[in-house]
Amino acid sequence: MSGYDILLTGGTVVDGTDPGGPSGGGSGAHPRRADVGIRDGRIAAVGDLGGDVSARTVLDVTGRYVLPGFVDSHVHADAVLGRPDVQEAMLRQGVTSVVLGQDGLSFAPGSAETVAYVARYFAAVDGTPPPELAGGCTVAQLLDFYDRRTPVNVAYLVPLGTVRHEVLGPDDHPAGDRLPELVRLVEQGLDEGAVGVSTGLEYVPGVFADFDELAALCRAAAAAGVPYVSHLRSYDGGDAPGMVEARDLGRTTGVPIHVSHLRGRAEPLLAHLADCAADGVDATFDVYPHIYGNTILAMKALPPQVQAGGVEATLRRLADLTVRAELRSNWFPRVSTDLAPAILGYVAGEKFRWAEGRTLAQACAESGLDLPDLLCDLLLDSDLAVGAIIPAPGGDESDLRAMLRDDRHVGCSDAIYLGGHPHPRGWGAFARFLGRHTRELGDWTWPQAAWHLAGHPARRFQLADRGRLTEGAVADVVVVDPERVHDQATYDHPRQLADGVNDVLVAGELVLAGGELTGATPGRALRRGEAGR
């Protein structure tokens, strides 16, 4: 049969298979002039398909590159993926699949109480859960909710902070004899299709998990053959204690480890990754192409003991003048230098919403408050729901580029789509990978770009039949103008859409055509162990 549902003609195919190491000299296919025929949602043929084949839809992509749809391996879209502006921001960069459940906190598996905790504590990151999930849900129910609801595919990690809250609440105490309950929830989530487990070891309650607890949960992941994805306990310091803990978990349990948004000075970090390899630990990591990060202000501004017990307990402490005096004397002097340049991206409270887009130093000057009082008053007024764009620990762009060039890297945005002045990475990270780091700087060849952004993350997270443009693969396809693609979002104007990607298909359906959303929602829930659909 020669007829196709869609035929892409005249383009250059970059297929997403492994280009083989930093030189790109491995077995992966080089860019080549080829047509792509799509039938029943899959790649039916790649090559010179001639001029006499029939197709219901023909796209002339002459002068453009045809790549597999990109996988955003770390993104915070759990509550906002149904928003058309978020879908447009992703698709205009070629992102067709996302991995949710990051940093140890999301909505499943959890009761209504746990979902409410995550929604409140992580309000500046994940936002308000959809009503269908707010009453509590399992991993299976969460994946069912996303299936065919958006143009983008969804994979999910079991968030271990959510699991901890479900069993132990937000307090600082060991799991003890309740550890088997945590293990059972993790095993259930993996059985229901999660592609890994995640931690946020600087967030509450994940910060309170000890090594033995993490090891028990990692053994469940190792038994399922999926990675332990970790926002480390610490990214600071040359000895990288967070990396040591992750390596030791991999060595102790046999679990593959994947480090979230690994940033800092490249030389010691790459040395730690080499130590992982020497110890037989399968280690990968993701990095976004920006120097500034984005997180909840409370995590950076307050010590863990002030955050113990949940949001209400934290607010009571911040309102206590004795606690504030102690913080002023013994805590804020240690963190004020790092916090002063942080940009306020999301402020929930009315009183200080004017400060969105300003640095904390600027907000102090305009409010007449010093940093300790501003931080406490700001967090109190916003119910802790404040997001901040903060310089990443250590390193500069040369370190970032060295991390990107490492074979163990996979692409991510770590996007947060909330607030009046969000981080620009949600609107531009993947376009920046292509425009700046591939075309301009040459950190990657185009085959390497397709591997880092599609083939490698699809393999790492077992997204069956995705991440490559080969016969039989699911037809998640992005068409890129290699001369024009670039990010336009900036720290001053963060919501500007990327340029250079106008046509995107998911499972063989056009979801972006001529730069516009089509309204199609073929995005699937990508469950572990299931063949791509």
TrEMBL record:
Q: Where is the Amidohydrolase domain?
A: 58-511
Give an example GO molecular function.
hydrolase activity, acting on carbon-nitrogen (but not peptide) bonds
Q: Extract the SUPFAM superfamilies matched here.
A: Composite domain of metallo-dependent hydrolases, Metallo-dependent hydrolases
Which Pfam families does the entry mention?
Amidohydro_3
Report residue spans for region: Disordered.
1-34
- The stretch of residues making up the signal peptide is none
Instruction: Please note every region of biased composition (Gly residues).
Output: 18-28
List membrane-spanning regions. none
Q: What is this protein called?
A: N-acyl-D-amino-acid deacylase
What species is this protein from? Actinopolymorpha singaporensis
What taxonomic lineage is listed for the species of origin? Bacteria, Bacillati, Actinomycetota, Actinomycetes, Propionibacteriales
